[in-house]
Amino acid sequence: MFVYILKRVLATIPVMLIVAIFVFLLLRLTPGDPAAILAGDAATPAQLDRIRERLGLNDPLLTQFFTWMGQLARGDLGVSLLSNTSVAGMVADRLGPTINIALMTIVISVALAVPMGVIAAWRHRTWVDFLVMSFSVLGFSVPVFVIGYILIQIFAIELRWVPVQGYKDPSEGFGAFFSRAILPSLTLATIYIALIARMTRASMLEVLGEDYIRTARAKGVRENVVLFRHALRNAAVPILTIIGTGFALLISGVVVTESVFNIPGIGRLTVDAILARDYPVIQAMILLTAGIYVFVNLLVDVSYSLFDPRIRY
Amino acid sequence: MEFKSKDFSNAPRVLKIRKLKVGLTGRPNAAPVLDGIDLDIRAGETHCLVGESGSGKSVTSLAAMGLLPKGALEVQGGLIDLEGFEITSASPSQMRELRARRIAMIFQEPMTALNPVIRVGEQILEVLNTHSDLSPSEAKKLTLDMMEQVHLPDVERIYSAFPHQLSGGQRQRIMIAMALILDPDLLIADEPTTALDVTTQLQILKLIAEMQERHGTAVLFITHDMGVVAEIADTVSVMQKGRIVERAPIRELLTDPKEAYTRKLLTAVPNLAPRPARGDVAEKDVVTVQGLDMAYGGGGFFRKSDRVKAARDVNFSIPPGRTLGIVGESGSGKSTVARCIMRLIDPTAGKITVAGTEIARLSRRQLQPHRKHLQIVFQDPYRSLNPRWTVARSLCEGPINFGTSRDEAMTKAAELMELVDLPRDALDRYPHQFSGGQRQRIAIARAVAMKPDLLVADEAVSALDVSVQAQVLDLLDDIQEKFGVAMLFITHDLRVAAQICDDVLVMQKGFVVEHGPAGQVLSTPRHDYTRNLINAAPGRNWDFSNYRALDHAPAPKGAIA
Amino acid sequence: MTEFPHARRSAFQVLTGLFSLPPGARVGIGPVIAAAILVIIVLASVMAPLYVPYDPLAMNAMARLKPPSEEFLLGTDPYGRDTFSRVMTGGRVSLLIGVGAALVSVTVGLFIGLVAGFFRAADSVIMRIMDSLMAIPAILLAIALVALNGPSLGSVIIAITVPEIPRVVRLVRSVVLSAREEPYVEAAIALGSSMPKILIQHLMPNTLAPLIVQGTYICASAILIEAILSFLGAGVSTEIPTWGNIMAEGRTYFQIKPGLIFWPGLLLSLCILAINLLGDTARDLLDPRMKKREG
Amino acid sequence: QEDETTITAVMHSGLRVLDPVITTAHITRNHGYMIYDVLTAVDADFKPQPQMADWEISEDNRTYTFTLREGLKFHDGAPVTGADVVASLKRWGKRDSGGQLIFDVTASLQSPDDKTVVWTLTEPFAPLLDVISKQSAVPPFIMPARVAETSADETITEYVGSGPFVFNEEEYEPGVNVTYEKFDDYVPRDEPASWMAGGKVVNVDRVVWTTMPDALTAINALSAGEIDYLEQVQIDLLPILESNPDVTVETRDELGYVTIGRPNHLLPPFDNKLIRQAAMAALDQESMLATMQGDPAYYNVCGAIFGCATPLGNEAGSEILTGGANIEKAKALLEEAGYDGTPIVLMAPTDVTSLINQPVVAAQALREAGFEVDMQSMDWQSLVQRRAQQNPVAEGGWNMFFTNWMVPEISDPLINVMVNGRGDDAWFGWPTDPRVEELRAAFVAAKDDASRNEIAVQIQEHVMDNVNYIMMGEYLIPQARRTAIRNMIPSPVPVFWNITKAAE
Ligand SMILES: Nc1ncnc2c1ncn2[C@@H]1O[C@H](COP(=O)(O)OP(=O)(O)OP(=O)(O)O)[C@@H](O)[C@H]1O
Ligand SMILES: Nc1ncnc2c1ncn2[C@@H]1O[C@H](COP(=O)(O)OP(=O)(O)OP(=O)(O)O)[C@@H](O)[C@H]1O
Ligand SMILES: [Mg+2]
Ligand SMILES: [Mg+2]
Ligand code: NI
């Protein structure tokens, strides 16, 4: 087990390295000039060039790359070209909101989607199944920002149950956090629920056709025990997998929800940085999100063995 | 051969099925799956249900359990009476109450029938938790007790093992413990031993008999193995196409079958008496295997230790027109040897000479021209033909690879169809439009199309019904006659081996433990392992096709039972 | 009498397999309605230039944000352009993006996947690269790619395609790896068929059915991603109306002119709904396990 | 803590650059006015007024003596000294175009004692006070000498000022939140506040600036009372706020903005004056402004390149722009110039809301006049990089783009970078225009307002003829506040002194 985890962790190194090279090249090939945004509209070309020189943007690409890799190796994420503050600090500030919203989304999604999928599979081809599947297809069909607007309109503007926007850390009181986090989480969860419910249903359908389900029924076990004790655990691996890979979707969704709900998270930070070509920030952010994705999927892989004793490492 | 002969007419009736009709849900006009089944089982009786695949044996048992697949099959008439309780009209919760208490079931595949993610002890315990109010410690004690009764070793450890950590036989014991823990009146066993090798099968059959003795349970035993039937049945019902065509006490059925169908079924069962050996051939051996070793795994950096030595120092040779059988229990390395010879896997060591060429070390490319000398027929007729290809295309693939023109290949394919006794127009059809036996014929035709010198048949008939199996074996015999091809025939069924092989090679754990002419190995085995195998073959003393006991029953001495 | 069965034939079989139901399988009314809706939307979009009343790009500063009327069926947008004309023409581009992204990613993914499944040596390198691509959040990658090439139609399609490719590759590779173990493939080896031949004739057809299913999902999500890219200011230029950028432009008017989001949103959702539903149906029908249970 | 008053304000953009000298970004300038103070400042009548210092001008107009007023202190407690002022002015002089002109004629800038700064010129520079009092784009903010010693090409890393608010570095999140606290030791002037001049009396404890990427969210947040102030409201969204009695919508900055189109004078076809004129004739202010703003109350058809409401503003020769599109004239000009159909590469940003419309409208009008237009969409960052390219179109060059300015940023020929005619040293578009340079020199030398106005008219006429850039009109951006926020002073810079917040 330990050896397996170690191997998996080691295997992420080439992946992250490829991500790093890829991101670096992509960014440097992209037109755009951080010096221009730094200096503002009225700056003259000569002024821009002096700033570029100072920021090291006139160095050859390879030099820039190795400078960056060298910094990374020392654990230094660099300094934002625009705000001149340390990227690590910015990331630290911005990570909290995103992680908290993402966690809440996952909790909500799993709590709703798994039972939905289980029931849909159990009542395969009935109206319950139809309802669940319709919802999950619908969840895929509406752009995230529209869902966000609709939720704001209903719950924040019409009903006035929760604030329109903003973010408060749980340390400032759970109520304050919850009331602001619930709409963005629901917005994000829609697509996630759709994904998980669909996968749960498919996986459960498969498992429900297995012999041991028949065995359990032959023992006279109650239906809910059959579903949740016998079937769900066997269906868990693909569900976990989709929760892991769906995490990428979540990150994409975060970018939009953070805009709509004005949450100071890493999604917005990254988009802003891309639009401003703040290279150190973009590089760090994409490495970070890629790292989170890889880590989550590593966790998922390792957790398989919790659900399926046949999987041993 | 001793048959059971107890009279059950006075025993209380446990299960009574009358005019049972089961059909496809929502399609009352389609041909019914079960059409007017009548069945009686009395306390203590073992009632065997036999018949070809698809005749409705499993459906009958599922109907009795109230477990017909929802949305697919439904009871459309008749009644099922379990000790006065009408099952066809029971509510789901009433049915749940009945199951495990009054009626229990064991399924064929012990691996898939147990939940892979729950500890086996808990799976047994669950029956008690569902149906009784025992305290946890009492329930656990009872469970362990039951596990002792089914002769599981080291019950404390096995209690907390997962199914994949147990052997097939142990898993099936768990199933039996689970089925019998509440002492039901009726035990339904649907092919409980088909997936096990003969020695384990024998133990399980004994166990069921013992439990039946102890608890007085009635048993409905479903099987297609006539040997098993001869061994355990009190009464036999023969099913064909959803009907019961004949019912009789065991001795009567085997000695004096009334129905033509029953006769056909019995005639098809091969004998354990070896076929008469064929005359020696002077020609050079087609294939020679020397010191073949095969170890799986070991490729990775971390896992040098978990190499599986699946074949060790295997030596044999086969002259043209002769058949060598490889027998042995599951996992003994039979397929490994076959796949090495075919070079589907690369042997770790040893020499394989086919038609004069040493092929064990040839590269893919070097091997290509020699491929046509070797062909193989696989066990699973459903997966050995590309489902997307027409039969014609499958048959032409090989010859075209070796330079035959399309038209020529097509003409040959048509001839081959005739050879394997299939209509010519079948060429345009797809595999799913054929039965298993027909597909196996196509697979054989495909192999024969290459005019190979060696034909490897890896369990080529194991998936087939006895009657179909007999036809395919005949076909192989014909082909060998006609083309003089050497054959490597792999099977775990000694009867089949006896019928078709000139020589037999017995494998155990990768080693060859005995090798000799079929007559000698099967009648006077020298190795204990071979003896055990033969002894474990059920109904080995009965000559089914002639409705009488065998003259020269293979009676190895010194065998353990 | 007998003509030689060509490979084309078997691919055709798979396609018809999509529409002919296995015995026992029942397709509800849902997929039929979905197919009908899709056909209507596609036809209406493709033929839009023939019937829309205005040039979808013609601006009219005097007719900004007009409510629906006889003159402007669905009202006008902040540039005074006719929403109806824009929404109907916008469908063409959105669908083009969807279909384009699906085709490109499936084709490229199929090729890479076959190579990865076949060449053991290439496999680990390719899969590491694919893992890396998967790890980069699709939206961020897309924004960066669009920034690189400028927000043209082509670069939006590429930006949507690139993150989808690894998924297709994984799918193809897993199908190839599992199909490799099938006895009929071993039989083909024994019959002396060369590896490329086995790959293309035996293994590739197996990937067709899952790819069709995957393709529908990519198509649906491409249309959505285009909308999100527009929302983030990295979409197709406003000179080319798409459902996505019509919605993105109209999003600030959500409360005062909901029609600007509603109509393109409705068509987009209906379209995606229909495509997804057909994809699901295709999967149910094509999944051999489902077939086994039902047949 | 309980009755601390905080104003939460949503600003037009996120604050990322904290150095108000290195950048011309408005948000950074606004930040500068929060934490820094200036020597002199312009009032609502465009008149320089004392702020940190009074001044005296020598007879020969060559020596300016500034005397710092009492009680000026930096946020770290140190008093403001003449040395700080000198260092700050020098750094500013390296970055600001007006400042550069002054330093070109500077003999010495010294601080004889802690309270005095003496600025000696080699020749008179009449607009000196106007330049150092300007509120845009880069005002000379006074920083401690140690900070001001930072190179002018490098951003400062210490944010200590002597202004009315203290920057809270702890709570600063670049691009998202900035928090300012009242500087208790700030001594305001006694005069009433007027634009940047007068007493900066702070009546609240904290001001928090945030950004909201989504305009609709910001409006909804204001309606719900989650924020107090919205610096810019999209005009089309005003109806949402109108019915809400708790929210007041008004125009704080009456000067507003201009939107302009800039042709590239280096490349064909816009190297041809006639073709530039044709483009100008094809464009129509009214339809562009209407598309951008909708409500006529918020735009102003105005042909004055220095803005219509400024002292120098005049509309000489601008009928071609203000009188509607003249497609006929455009076609005739193109005919005359022998336009060969060379496509106009028009750069169109996709991610800056206030700049999305102009290229789209312009493209349509130009096409109507017979131009071939190749509108290329890109994000603003790609645009700012590309507009610096002098290459031919095929190698990444461009022909035209649009941008916006605040009126004070274009209000005179020294500030307005687009009338710089020094070729490669000029602003993007690089006109080589000796005539305009001549006029600018004359402007600096001019002694009185009358002659300055005279020169401004000449520049206006010249620019209209030569089409250095195309003035597309003025527009206003309303702001919205909770009604409880009172006493905001009208100003082009959103300042937070004088404001009171009543309990709601
Ligand atoms: N779920 C189902 N839906 C439709 N038909 C079914 C279903 N299950 C079984 N059948 C049909 O019922 C018939 C009897 O099947 P059954 O499984 O009882 O055969 P069997 O005698 O047990 O065969 P085997 O020896 O292969 O187990 C077959 O023709 C089969 O096709
Ligand atoms: N691909 C493989 N990798 C690792 N081990 C394998 C592999 N194939 C077979 N084995 C192991 O090799 C041994 C011999 O297997 P083989 O398939 O040859 O047995 P067999 O005699 O054909 O059994 P059966 O009767 O069940 O077909 C078994 O222990 C099996 O687990
Ligand atoms: Mg059966
Ligand atoms: Mg085998
Ligand atoms: Ni034909």
TrEMBL record, chain A:
Taxonomic superkingdom: Bacteria
This protein's record includes keyword Transmembrane helix: yes
Pfam families: BPD_transp_1, BPD_transp_1_N
BP GO terms, sorted: transmembrane transport
Keywords for this protein: Cell membrane, Membrane, Transmembrane, Transmembrane helix, Transport
Subcellular location: Cell membrane
ABC transmembrane type-1 domain residues: 95-300
Topological relation to the membrane, as annotated: Multi-pass membrane protein
Transmembrane intervals: 9-27, 99-122, 134-157, 177-197, 237-261, 281-307
Major site of localization recorded for this protein: membrane
CDD domains hit by this protein: TM_PBP2
Gene Ontology CC terms, in alphabetical order: plasma membrane
Family as reported in the entry's similarity comment: Belongs to the binding-protein-dependent transport system permease family.
The protein's name in its UniProt record: Peptide/nickel transport system permease protein
Species for this entry: Sedimentitalea nanhaiensis
From TrEMBL, chain B:
Protein name per Swiss-Prot or TrEMBL: Peptide/nickel transport system ATP-binding protein
A GO term from the CC aspect: plasma membrane
Keywords, alphabetical: ATP-binding, Cell membrane, Membrane, Nucleotide-binding, Transport
PROSITE patterns: ABC_TRANSPORTER_1, ABC_TRANSPORTER_2
A GO BP annotation: peptide transport
NCBIfam families to which the protein is assigned, alphabetical: PRK10419.1 (NF007739), PRK11308.1 (NF008453)
SMART domains for the chain: AAA
PANTHER family from the UniProt entry: DIPEPTIDE TRANSPORT ATP-BINDING PROTEIN DPPD, OLIGOPEPTIDE TRANSPORT ATP-BINDING PROTEIN APPD
Primary location: membrane
Gene3D superfamilies associated with the record: P-loop containing nucleotide triphosphate hydrolases
Residue stretches making up the ABC transporter domain: 17-266, 289-534
The organism's taxonomic lineage, starting at the top: Bacteria, Pseudomonadati, Pseudomonadota, Alphaproteobacteria, Rhodobacterales
Family designation: Belongs to the ABC transporter superfamily.
A Pfam family that the UniProt record links to this protein: ABC_tran
One MF annotation (Gene Ontology) recorded for this entry: ATP binding
SUPFAM superfamilies, alphabetized: P-loop containing nucleoside triphosphate hydrolases (SSF52540)
Protein species of origin: Sedimentitalea nanhaiensis
Membrane topology qualifier: Peripheral membrane protein
Location(s) in or outside the cell: Cell inner membrane
Domain of life, source organism: Bacteria
UniProtKB/TrEMBL annotation, chain C:
A Pfam family annotated for this UniProt entry: BPD_transp_1
Subcellular location: Cell membrane
Record InterPro entries: BP-dependent_transpt_permease, MetI-like, MetI-like_sf
ABC transmembrane type-1 domain location: 91-279
One annotated Gene Ontology cellular component of this protein: plasma membrane
GO BP terms: transmembrane transport
Keywords recorded for this protein, A-Z: Cell membrane, Membrane, Transmembrane, Transmembrane helix, Transport
Entry's transmembrane regions: 28-52, 95-119, 211-234, 260-279
Membrane topology field: Multi-pass membrane protein
Principal cellular location given in the protein's record: membrane
Record flagged with keyword Cytoplasm: no
Record family assignment: Belongs to the binding-protein-dependent transport system permease family.
Record-given protein name: Peptide/nickel transport system permease protein
Organism, as annotated: Sedimentitalea nanhaiensis
